[in-house]
Amino acid sequence: MSNGKGILVFANKYSKEEIKNLISKLDNYDFICGMTTAASIEGSTILNESVKSVFPLKSLEYLLIEENNLSKEHATKTATKLKSFKPKAIITLVSDLDGNIEEYLNQFGRIYPEAPMVGGVASNPKGFVNTFVFTKNRVISEGIVFLAIKGESIETFRDYAFGWKHLEKKFKITKAFKNRIYEIEDKPVIEFYRHYLGDMFLKNLEAVTLCFPLMVRRMGTLVARACIRINEDESMSYTGNFREGEYAYFGVGGERKILLASRNLWWQMTKFSPDKVILFSCLGRKSFLGRKTLIEISPFESIGETTGGFVFGEIFGRKKPILLNHTLTAIGIKYKDEKRKGRNFKKFCLYHQKTESDIQHVIIEMLIHLANTVMKELEKKNREIKKLADTDGLTGIYNRRKILEELEKEIIRTQRYGNPLSVIIFDVDLFKEVNDTYGHLMGDKILREIVQIIKKNIRRPDIFGRYGGEEFLIILPETDITGGVKFAEKLRKLIENHTFPIDRKITISLGVAEYKYGDTVDTLLARADKALYMAKESGRNKVCKLS
Length: 547
Description:
- It catalyses: 2 GTP = 3',3'-c-di-GMP + 2 diphosphate.
- Residues 419-547 form the GGDEF domain.
- InterPro entries: Diguanylate_Cyclase, FIST_C, FIST_domain_N, GGDEF_dom, Nucleotide_cyclase, Rev_trsase/Diguanyl_cyclase.
- One of its GO terms (molecular function) is diguanylate cyclase activity.
- It comes from Desulfurobacterium indicum.
- The chain has 15 helices and 30 strands.
- The chain is an alpha+beta fold.
- The protein has four domains: 5-161 and 256-357, no CATH class; 165-253, no CATH class; 358-390; 400-546, Reverse transcriptase/Diguanylate cyclase domain (Alpha-Beta Plaits), CATH 3.30.70.
- Strands 13, 14, 15, 16, 17, 18, 19 and 20 form an eight-stranded antiparallel β-sheet that branches.
- α3 (100-111) links the parallel β7 and β8.
- α6 (255-272) packs antiparallel against α9 and α12 (431-438) crosses α13 (440-457).
- Residues 348-357 have low confidence and may be disordered.
């Protein structure tokens, strides 16, 4: 018999037959939707049995999306349809999409960026097998159920608690596809982990996943990505996608930080004062906290009827829907015509004491601080060493090795994009006479003054270095031979008209050459050097060119 109500089910059944049997026992409800979870939440208790949350039927709309409908076009239609319901919240239940969910959510967010989404990825205590989402008439292993909660008399509050910190050293994802990483920092991903975490990580993949998830930025926020398996091709699969070229960090979990984040979520929910709370807590978070998961979960019972489940990933939308990991994600639902319950301050105080008193939390925080401080110092030292390796000691500009390295890069860029490239080689006319007459200290001072004049007049993309002795090289990206000669002439006049601290004129001779098809560093510089020789042979203080 119809009761005018619908239910959201967190099921501990892991086969279609068991789920269908569960649904048949709930046949008196007009609407049923749900997902499998490795464990469920009811009040302040974690259960290995199914739990349900009941809603007035008139406040619900739903859409079920099967895997073969996960195209961008279908995401557009789904977002448009859900938006038309004017929902106060969209509870999103996902099962086994192996990296496709993020692409779907990205397209969904383009159409409905403000979608009030909250939800999770179905789980199983035995791992990423036999997970399902379902409605009253359908049980599917790969797909999405969107449950729209609507109505003028309903208010909702959504947020999540994270609490993981990240080490400050970042690593570039150099080869990835969807949720698989093949290379980090141009190293095979397994070698990358072995380098930083040692050989034992292969035998302790679960511990690595819990304690050291990779963290990347999504919508300006750092989110965790836990490894779920190592594949036969030695790539590693994660609970969310990566993009080639983006940077990742090692995340580090500390109980104190995690539980304080949960306490803040609980306090925000308390201020909202909902009638019911639905929690989607990451299974990895539960495994990390162990028994202290109850400290995190139990305070919500003091606010309102609390149900939920432990999931493989959490879904949350504020600016755009994103996939999270290692969070406690919550939605509070309030019916305006119902009386509010009072707050349970005893629960709050007990919770506060438990999060602050454990010395292990302080130790972890100090270790994270220590690791970050050491990394900052090492990175600063490495920058200093690199600067010394790249810099000419006398003038402070690039040395010969570095300027030739930069020229190699610019030639490759020119070959790729077809833009012009010119170079200038110049040296100081009769510089040996300056050294012989005024001494090497004065000669060094003259070189430094010349370098400062050049530096003040080159463009931002131009590259300047000492080629050797009193010879210098300027690389002019996106500049043809005409522009190169014009710029060289400008520099020649600046030096000629400058007053140096000696009683004689200082001039320079300059050779200009433009890149032509097939040039290497050596052939391009050979032409510029020959042009310089022509300038010196024709009387010095001149600019000559070779195309």
